[in-house]
């Protein structure tokens, strides 16, 4: 079955950096578009960044220049490097696999908490 497990969330001071990892299994990672979402308390879930199967990337305006998404197809992992953290980056960060033609379902991880003070 499909599993996405996020790692790397922590409590850090503003200006610091974190690297979030998402370990995946149960689907063909190489063919999948992946993304990171986040949800802060009282806010709607927000798309942060995506990386397609061919490596194309997208970033929300609020994170451009500070966040970098990457993937390692050999390890079935997707990463989110977060630099210059701001208090407004505080949220639960979720790894998501987009629907595919053969499996039209979004899959979400359980989330990892990032707290910036």
Commentary on this structure:
- The protein has 117 residues and is mainly β.
- It is 0% helix and 48% strand.
- It is built from no helices and eleven strands.
- Strands 2, 4, 5, 6, 9, 10 and 11 form a seven-stranded mixed sheet that branches.
- The chain is globular.
Show the helix and strand layout.
Layout: E1 3-7, E2 11-12, E3 18-25, E4 34-39, E5 46-51, E6 57-59, E7 67-72, E8 77-82, E9 91-97, E10 107-108, E11 112-116
Parallel strand pairs: 2-11
Antiparallel strand pairs: 1-3, 3-8, 4-5, 4-9, 5-6, 7-8, 9-10, 9-11
Give, in order, the helices and strands.
EEEEEEEEEEE
Which structural class do the helices and strands define?
Answer: mainly beta
Helix content: under 10%
Gyration radius from CA atoms, angstroms: 14 Å
Search tags:
seven-stranded mixed beta sheet, mainly beta, 117 residues, four-stranded antiparallel beta sheet
Give a summary of the structure in a few sentences.
The chain has 117 residues and is mainly β.
């Amino acid at each position: 079955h499909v599993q996405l497990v996020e790692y790397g969330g922590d409590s850090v001071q503003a200006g610091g950096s974190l690297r979030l990892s998402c370990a995946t299994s149960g689907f063909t990672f190489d063919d999948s578009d992946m993304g990171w979402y986040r949800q802060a308390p009282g806010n709607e879930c927000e798309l942060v960044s995506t990386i397609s199967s061919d490596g194309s990337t997208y970033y929300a305006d609020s994170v451009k220049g500070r966040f970098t998404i990457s993937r390692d197809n050999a390890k079935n992992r997707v990463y989110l490097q977060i630099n210059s953290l701001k208090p407004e980056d505080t949220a639960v960060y979720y790894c998501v696999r987009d629907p595919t033609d053969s499996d039209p379902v979004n899959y979400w991880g359980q989330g990892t908490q990032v707290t910036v003070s």
